[in-house]
UniProtKB/TrEMBL annotation:
Presence of the UniProt keyword Hydrolase in the record: yes
The gene coding this protein: ctlX
Taxonomy, superkingdom: Bacteria
Protein name: Citrulline utilization hydrolase CtlX
Keyword Disulfide bond: no
Regions crossing the membrane: none
SUPFAM superfamilies: Pentein
Upper classification of the organism: Bacteria, Pseudomonadati, Bacteroidota, Cytophagia, Cytophagales
Stretch forming the signal peptide: none
């Protein structure tokens, strides 16, 4: 079992923009009234294509899926929220909070994923959406996975409910470590992956966003599982998406930490040195429009593709 993969999937957007419904639970989204919807889409597309080129240039296999031309899915650039793949041979799809995001689930992508990751089982958790009291779990946004130790770290929120989280854990033999963390307005932080990243040998975490009663529990689980904790601040999290990183690898087996340019520039030299000790490459990608309008960063743009291990 490995924490990292060299194959990822990214979705090229056709209608990227501000999602009014999603903004109700995502305090990280920003309106940019000086830009037209067409300009926002064009800039986001340039940022996306540059990110793909940079990743491929470092030897990462990127499966690019394009939105249909007539798509009305403003958040499709963040596919990690609606599916995940696993070396246990499972493909999992998730219950999404906003109706427009449910349109991102495409049978053609699911079929391509089944072939790419050699998944022998598709576990569909979206039935939680249609319960009398709907519950949500937005993939590896809601959960930050320690795949080697089979731990799902989850900050509970309107987008991350305990019942579907437990179903995920039961399906894959994971244990859940839950806690509360708070966003810039004191709200429950909408996705765990904006304040936390798990690598093979380290964990980046904005511990000062975590409820004081939960900090010792979180710290203990991370250190017990062998991770060096690299702390970032809530300011770095709220303003620069510093926690929204992902460790992957290239075809040569070199470890790459992918983060946004804004996140990189917010980090101190000490934090950067700590990260360099665990990675051959720090890949900082400029995605300012996607971050501001979408309220998510580069980790959200990358869906990992894992194939079953022998």
């Amino acid at each position: 079992m490995k924490q990292t993969t060299s194959t990822i999937l990214m979705v090229e957007p056709a209608s990227f923009g501000f999602n009014e419904e999603a903004a109700k639970t995502n305090a990280f989204q920003r309106r940019l009234p000086d830009f037209t919807p067409g300009q926002i889409q064009d800039i986001a597309l340039l940022e996306f294509r540059n990110a793909v080129n940079e990743l491929q240039g470092l030897g990462v296999e990127v499966l690019v899926i394009r939105d249909p031309e007539n798509a009305v899915t403003p958040d499709s650039v963040f596919p990690n929220n609606w599916f995940s793949t696993h070396a246990e041979g499972k493909l999992i799809t998730y219950p999404m909070t906003t109706a427009v995001r449910r349109m991102e689930r495409r049978t053609d992508i699911i079929q391509q994923l089944k072939e790419a990751c050699k998944c022998n089982e598709h576990v569909a958790l979206e039935y939680f959406e249609s319960q009398e009291e709907p519950l949500f779990l937005e993939g590896t946004g809601s959960m930050v996975l320690d795949r080697v130790n089979k731990i799902a770290y989850a900050a509970v929120s309107p987008r991350t409910a305990l019942e579907p989280l437990q179903k995920f854990c039961d399906t894959l033999g994971y244990s859940a470590v839950t806690f509360e963390a708070y966003g810039p307005a004191g709200e429950l932080i909408y996705h765990t992956n904006v304040m936390m990243c798990i690598g093979a040998t380290f964990a980046v975490v904005a511990m000062d966003t975590v409820d004081e009663q939960d900090r010792e529990k979180l710290y203990t689980h991370l250190t017990t599982s062998g991770k060096e904790i690299i702390e970032i601040t809530k300011e770095q999290t709220y303003h620069s998406f510093a926690g929204n990183m992902l460790q992957i690898e290239n075809k040569q087996g070199e470890l790459i930490l992918v983060l946004s340019k804004a996140a990189y520039e917010s980090l101190t030299e000490q934090q950067l040195d700590q990260l360099r000790a665990h990675n051959e490459h720090l890949l900082a990608l400029p995605i300012h429009m996607i971050e501001k309008i979408g309220g998510g960063s580069i980790r959200c743009m990358i869906a990992e593709v894992f194939v079953p291990t022998a």
